[in-house]
Amino acid sequence: MNTIIEVNNVSKTFGKNTNLNKVLDSACMFVGEGEFVSLMGASGSGKSTLLYLIGGLDRNFEGNITVCGKDIGSLKDSELSDLRLRNMGFVFQFYNLVMNLNVEDNILLPHTMAGKKRSELRSSLDEILEITGLTEKRKAMPATLSGGQQQRVAIARAVMGEPQIILADEPTGNLDSVSSEEVMHLFTRLNKEKGLSILQVTHSEKCAGYGSRTVMLENGKTVG
Ligand SMILES: Nc1ncnc2c1ncn2[C@@H]1O[C@H](COP(=O)(O)OP(=O)(O)OP(=O)(O)O)[C@@H](O)[C@H]1O
Ligand SMILES: [Mg+2]
Q1: For the chain, which ranges sit under pLDDT 70?
Q2: Does the beta carbon of 23 sit less than 6 angstroms from any atom of ligand 1?
Q3: CB of 44 closer than 6 angstroms to any ligand 1 atom
Q4: Collapsing DSSP states into helix, strand and coil, what is residue 97?
Q5: pTM, rounded to two decimals
Q6: Domain residues of the chain, as ranges?
Q7: DSSP run (H or E) holding 147
Q8: Of 53, 74, 77, whose CA–CA distance to 5 is shortest?
């Protein structure tokens, strides 16, 4: 199996001088191409920190992170943005939708902003609305949707650019158990049918169980 994410001896320290907080301490892990991996660990153990480093949202770390064969530490800012836009989709706990745009405009936003025409995106949009079960809601405003539906819009937005990887930080952290299951079924489907590699942070054993493998963060190191 080829790896799509590789984390080698990654350390990350916050703070200065006498107030240092070493959150990651030579952490190592990988995600294989087409794998669905869950990342667990106590609150404050550094899960979000690691996910953001992998996603190139924070470039200040020691060690090596390779995503889609690229050593992200040695990329220029523009190359890293490009890798993010083309290869990675992000899903967060609090959906991060634009409340005054309807469902389909939210899903299209990163791409219309990058200069793509709506007509070019039309067939991918229809397919993604179908997969995420949002076809009927395509013109709805986010505020009229349930939390689970809003999270599905966020996932649709993340997969719209046909990324190879989804990075999800507690995607069900704000959802009831029924909506959480819907989101996990959707991830499973995207993983199986579209071959998307998924790395999700979760506090839920049940959600972690939808993945094929769980990595634990403890004392700055990864276990498992
Ligand atoms: N921007 C920052 N500046 C300073 N310290 C930070 C920053 N971000 C995170 N930390 C610290 O790093 C540690 C790990 O935080 P992180 O958010 O990665 O934990 P987590 O495992 O995601 O926790 P949770 O399960 O609560 O989301 C915490 O001690 C936190 O205070
Ligand atoms: Mg976190």
Answers
A1: 224
A2: yes
A3: yes
A4: coil
A5: 0.94
A6: 3-223
A7: helix 147-160
A8: 53
Backbone angles phi, psi at 198, to 5 degrees: -130, 135
Q: How many CB atoms lie within 10 A of CB 182?
A: 19
Q: With respect to CATH, is domain 3-223 assigned 3.40.30.10?
A: no
CA 195 to chain centre: 15
- Evaluate: CB of 21 within 6 angstroms of ligand 1: yes
Contact 63, 9 (CB under 8 A): yes
Specify the ligand 1 atom closest to the Cα of 46.
18
Mutate to test the pocket of ligand 1, among 23, 174, 200, 215 (most ligand atoms within 8 A of CB): 23
Is there a contact between 151 and 179 (Cβ–Cβ < 8 Å)?
Answer: yes
Per-residue pLDDT tens for 47-70? 999 999 999 999 999 999 999 999
Amino acid at 117: K
Give pLDDT, residue 223: 86
Closest C-alpha among 155, 167, 221, 154 to residue 4? 167
Beta carbons of 174 and 94 less than 8 angstroms apart: yes
What's the gap in Å between 218 CA and the centre of ligand 2? 14
Separation in Å, CA 103 to CA 73, 120, 143, 154, 175 = 35, 18, 10, 9, 19
